[in-house]
Amino acid sequence: MTTLTRPEIAPPPPWSFPPVEQSRLGNGIELHRYHRPGQQIVAAHLVLEVPLNAEPRDREGVATITTRCLDEGTRRHAGEEFAELLETEGAGFGIEIGLSGLQAVLDVPVRRLDRAFELFAEAVTEPALAADDVDRHVQLRLAEIEQGRANSATRATTEFRRAVFTADSRAARMNGGEPETVAAVTAADAAAYHVDRYGPDGATLIVAGDLTGIDVEALAERTFGGWRVEGQRRAAQQRAEPGGRTALLVDRPGAVQADLRLGAYAVDRTDPRWADLTVAGYAMGGAFLSRLNKVLREERGYTYGVRLGFSPLRAGGWYAVQGSFRTEVLVDAVREARELLDVSARPFAADEVTDAVAYYTGTSPLRFATADGVADQAAAQVLAGLEPGYLDASLAALRDVTPESATAAYTSVVDVAGASLVVVGAADQLAEPLRALGYDDLVVVEG
């Protein structure tokens, strides 16, 4: 019998984000190509760095309305006809809009890419922006705002943003606009916004999928290369500024549950502490058995789930403890959350750091296994002002985090005494106990 020597199995090398090929179209659009063999659904994102602070102050929401009308028809194809043409190609068209800009998204089988790309370009560059469509989306947005106000979790997040940022920061207000500004938006406003702000200057086109045998640059040049906008206006990205400490209770009489937000202004991904904060956030409130969830959910039974997250913007950001709690335990939950957030007596431990790093490095290959996942991440990096190599550098930085560095970064950002509190719940049961807890400046408003 022949005995075979068991081969030595080396640990897998660190995973890397897929490489990118970059070029520039004749009109200045940046083209990023990610060849993903075997991915037969191509994902294309056209990223326009049009920050929401570019909106006229009295027409905030016009960016959202304009964007939502892009696939409602073009100057060449009316709404239903355009939708049918997209459907014929098996293509999906979507829109994502945030404080730093917007994305038009196309998903299509690779064999249908040519015609679908023509329609994709047509929607972005030649939208009809018909008055009926604009008016309908205005009404839908107003209904969406009312629905959000009725939802305690959404209302808590909205009010928390007002608390964390100064009133003149665009981040302090809803991305889709406030009721009075949305109601003022007309088709003429949408058309003017499109003419002024949409254009190739500062745009990035990202294409991911199996691009074997496809001249993506030629296709992009043919469909988007002729897009030129005289007088396109660029707007600088506004840095959200920190507001002061706030304590707010939005009254929901008779509510058996209260929604909590507890946090403050924080940093963005370019801060050298970001990797440490990512690890610390996971240990404190990002995992099922994180410190907050283990105590408030598993041991106390106060909630179905509570988390702490660091939410970066293009510049600046915020952190927040958030969760829904039974009304009768909300004050105790706030007390315990504040105690848990203070890590001076219990710094982060080595096993917490190891678990967090293993999670982020271990899930990356799964998160970016599809062309859509790759394109999403690439687009997010563009809108955050980050280079294509950001993710690899970020994962490397995570591997260098220590318990000491995670604790130091966390304590430099998370100041429990200075954190703002927003609660949406029954004021008759919560107001005085919250004041007794130290929030003597608590303001109660009608829900």
TrEMBL record:
<dbReference type="InterPro" id="IPR011765">
    <property type="entry name" value="Pept_M16_N"/>
</dbReference>
<feature type="domain" description="Peptidase M16 N-terminal">
    <location>
        <begin position="36"/>
        <end position="152"/>
    </location>
</feature>
<dbReference type="Pfam" id="PF00675">
    <property type="entry name" value="Peptidase_M16"/>
</dbReference>
<dbReference type="InterPro" id="IPR011249">
    <property type="entry name" value="Metalloenz_LuxS/M16"/>
</dbReference>
<dbReference type="Pfam" id="PF05193">
    <property type="entry name" value="Peptidase_M16_C"/>
</dbReference>
<protein>
    <submittedName>
        <fullName>Pitrilysin family protein</fullName>
    </submittedName>
</protein>
<dbReference type="InterPro" id="IPR050361">
    <property type="entry name" value="MPP/UQCRC_Complex"/>
</dbReference>
<dbReference type="InterPro" id="IPR007863">
    <property type="entry name" value="Peptidase_M16_C"/>
</dbReference>
<feature type="domain" description="Peptidase M16 C-terminal">
    <location>
        <begin position="185"/>
        <end position="357"/>
    </location>
</feature>
